[in-house]
DNA sequence: TCGCACACGTTATAGCATAACGCAATTGAT
DNA sequence: ATCAATTGCGTTATGCTATAACGTGTGCGA
């Protein structure tokens, strides 16, 4: 699941996400890539699907947006569950891991024999700068 | 924020969710209430908005659906962050609280002065029965 | 009685995501 | 070399999710 060489479209989408200062929706990405020949949502969604699979992009379920992984190179997935703090004012996203949270959730799933495939942890609120 | 008497529409929507054996999308709710005079999505969304506010219904961000609170009467919000395990096969949802998870996330936010307004924890996977 | 808050109904629109078709390039076994 | 399978890509169409904007009626306190 580590990232092979990206195709042209995958590279374009990843580049847009990496340069952005916050999460972007698929349609926003599409708009940013019209000059590069993108015409339809599927071109974006198909690239995102692969980038998510490779673990270099994360999807923020609570805001239907996508963001480049904040920990390039280290294959984020291996660090366990990823959590996000999303500022609803400035859009900034902070990505972090907490092994104790992982452990507690894993304990819960083990006790109930629930097989978790994908876990979402997202906090929406105000960052320090915006709360002031 | 405890629940006042529900209006007619709110009661109808809540009733549908309570009787359902899993989460429902707003449009599914709409379809189930057409016989009761519902004609437009807003009728559902407006009722849901209040039910969420009262804490008797939860929104599952990762599947764009809504579910009745599994802990009627005790005002779920007071127990801290709510977490869900969602079976992608049978649709069953398990709702739970974990104070240690709460504490860890709260510690993180305090350390970074992030003011969390709404936290989502959702695990998607297979329940014991479906994994077998 | 006036003004306000709130629920409600309706129409229209915006925003998010995928189905289904066909084509081209790549790969990898025979 | 050839064929089949896989993968990426482009396009059109469609479906699902959510809200904007406008207007109506009702209840209730100033
Ligand atoms: Zn990451
Ligand atoms: Zn901020
Ligand atoms: Zn609850
Ligand atoms: Zn199941």
From TrEMBL, chains A, B:
Cofactor remark: Binds 1 zinc ion per subunit.
Cellular component annotations (GO), alphabetically ordered: cytosol
The keyword Transcription belongs to this UniProt entry's keyword annotation: yes
Residues involved in Zn(2+) binding: 87, 90, 127, 130
Pfam family name, one: FUR
GO function terms (MF aspect): DNA-binding transcription factor activity; transcription cis-regulatory region binding; zinc ion binding
Cofactor(s) this protein requires: Zn(2+)
Top-level division of the source organism's lineage: Bacteria
Classification via InterPro entries: FUR (IPR002481), Fur_C (IPR043135), WH-like_DNA-bd_sf (IPR036388), WH_DNA-bd_sf (IPR036390)
Key words of the record: DNA-binding, Metal-binding, Repressor, Transcription, Transcription regulation, Zinc
Coiled-coil region(s): none
GO BP term (any one): regulation of secondary metabolite biosynthetic process
Keyword Transcription: yes
Protein family membership: Belongs to the Fur family.
Alphabetical list of PANTHER family matching this protein: ZINC UPTAKE REGULATION PROTEIN (PTHR33202:SF6)
Protein name: Fur family zinc uptake transcriptional regulator
Biological classification of the source: Bacteria, Pseudomonadati, Pseudomonadota, Alphaproteobacteria, Hyphomicrobiales
């Amino acid at each position: 699941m580590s990232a092979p060489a990206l195709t042209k479209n995958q590279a374009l989408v990843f580049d847009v996400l990496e340069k952005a200062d916050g999460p972007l929706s698929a349609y926003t990405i599409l708009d940013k890539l019209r000059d590069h020949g993108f015409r339809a949502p599927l071109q974006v969604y198909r690239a995102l699907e692969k980038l998510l699979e490779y673990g270099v992009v994360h999807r923020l379920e609570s805001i239907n947006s996508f963001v480049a992984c904040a920990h390039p190179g280290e294959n984020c997935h291996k660090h366990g569950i990823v959590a996000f703090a999303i500022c609803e004012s400035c859009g900034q996203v902070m990505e972090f891991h907490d092994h104790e949270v992982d452990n507690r959730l894993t304990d819960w799933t083990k006790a109930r024999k629930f097989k978790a495939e994908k876990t979402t942890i997202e906090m929406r609120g105000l960052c320090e700068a915006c709360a002031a």
